Amino acid sequence: MAFFVASRLLGLVRDVVISHQFGTTRALDAYFAAFSIPDLLFNVIAGGALGSAFIPVFAAALAQGDNTRAWKLASAVLNWALILLTGLAALMALFAPQVVAATVGRGFAPADQALTGDLMRWMLITPIVFGLSGIVMGILNAHQHFVLPAAAPVAYNAAIIGGAVLLAPTMGVYGLAAGVVAGACLHLLIQVPWLIRQHMHYSLTLGVHSVDVRQVGRLMLPRTLGLAAVQINFLVNTILASGLPAGRIAALQYAWRVMLLPEGIVALSLATAVFPTFSQQTAREELEDFRRTFSGVFRATLYLTIPAAVGLIILGGPLIALLFQRGEFDSQSTAETAWALQFYALGLCAHSGLEIITRAFYAMHDTRTPVAIGVAAIVLNVVLSLVLVGPLAQGGLALANSVATLLEMSVLFFLLEARLKGIANRTLGLSLARTASGALLMGAILWPFVGHFSNWGPAALATLGALIGGTIYLAATAGLRAEEIGFVVRRLRR
Q1: For 245, which DSSP code?
Q2: String of b and e for 148-171 (b: at least 16 CB within 10 Å)?
Q3: What is the pLDDT of residues 262-310, one digit of tens each?
Q4: Cα(477)–Cα(389) distance, integer angstroms
Q5: What pTM was computed for the model?
Q6: Cβ atoms of residues 407 and 380 within 8 Å
Q7: Measured between alpha carbons, how far is residue 143 from residues 28, 49, 67, 286 in Å?
Q8: pLDDT tens digits for range 153-163
Q9: Alpha-carbon distance 326 to 322, whole Å?
Q10: Neighbours of 193 (CB within 10 A)
Q11: SS3 337
């Protein structure tokens, strides 16, 4: 968790540096638009797809004490990822102008489309490297090793900052692309020493006749379709935002990343750490332990992210100004970003809860259920985006995402509850009531505070607001005897 915090904070520094250099200009719109195609390749082929399919099968082999079988599986999956990602990246690079004109740069002028295509070619190296790195990360996590995988994003963000500071002044937005490529390479290289130390038995095999490889393929297929739907939704958002005034894609991206800061620190770190445990408990048929583990982690996730969402809604404007408003990022950029952030914040607890719930399904070797519900949520998201982008601009795209995600998390939770035959409903209900009460009290005090002292500078307003809000929430939930306080303290001590 410490490295996740460091990674998110460094990611925030990265965004601060980028905002200073580029503000919310069309050049930065082109950079974010170009980023979306390599991001699609990585996420669909090797990101969540291979992680959710590979870790349960690999962890099961380790739990059964068959290391030879586990390493053969890892080698085959690495080889498949390398072949598929390299082929698709080369194809996308060859037809980059056509891909940009038909998708992410559809609303751009021809010169901006050309810039987006050039940047995309640079960054198509990253899904290949990230694909391999993601599988290595899964290998380490399955061995209950989390330090180097958590440190890898720190190196990635540091490289992008280096590109923004050292290269962007002379290379412009191409300096950012160079930093992204260097960061991806560091993301992989920082994890390799563990594999060397463990004497990984790599082999040149595709495992065509391997039962384990076929199992990974079966688990991966529905997840791949689900992630493809998610990425298509992001592409639709980029296409719609490209038709808005210059800078709205950048504003949407800044807001999304600020929202992901608490989500990554809390939910992603907990979900990454608990996933191998879920997988092992499933392999050993320890249903009661599974229920108890899920309930504790899910309650802690909501306990930390619900007040964070309230804080982002109320303090979003001062926070954005404090973080980004300097250099090319002016007050108009702050207003455009804060407008999207308040709508994204409505879905923070849902995005966080999904990190835990989906991994519970994946650990039970069920990738179909989360994908089916996820695809339905994506369809709803696209429909709502088309309806809301007109009246609310980038805020409508953010609101559509939050509404669809809240419904997705709710449906999956009830399906998981039925699958597990109960998840300590009374305990969870009391926990949610305490958390909601504390967050409402915090919001009721913060709202007039921000309104009354709106003439203060953003630094004072955001900092004092966060301290006051956090203190009120902690005191209120402690008074209500929230059990999650002890859980969080124990996690931090460990």
Answers
A1: S
A2: bbbbbbbbbbbbbbbbbeebbeee
A3: 888 788 878 878 888 888 888 888 888 888 889 888 998 999 999 999 9
A4: 38
A5: 0.75
A6: yes
A7: 40, 19, 11, 19
A8: 899 999 999 99
A9: 9
A10: 10
A11: helix
64: number of Cβ within 10 Å: 11
Tokens of 131: 């694909």
Of 2-6, 89-93, 254-258, 315-319, minimum mean pLDDT range: 2-6
Burial of 285 from C-beta contacts in 10 A (0-12 / 13-18 / 19+): exposed
DSSP 22: H
**Tokens at residue 345, please?**
């914040």
Instruction: Using the structure block, give the residue that is written with the tokens 């919001």.
Output: 443
230, 381 Cβ separation under 8 angstroms:
no
- 484 token code pair: 């999650």
Residue 422, burial from CB neighbour count under 10 angstroms (0-12, 13-18, 19+)? exposed
Terminal CA-to-CA distance of the chain, rounded, Å?
10
One-letter identity of residue 283: A
Length of the chain: 494
For residues 226 and 362, give the distance between their C-alpha atoms in angstroms, rounded to a whole number. Answer: 13
For the chain, the structural domain boundaries read: 26-221, 247-494
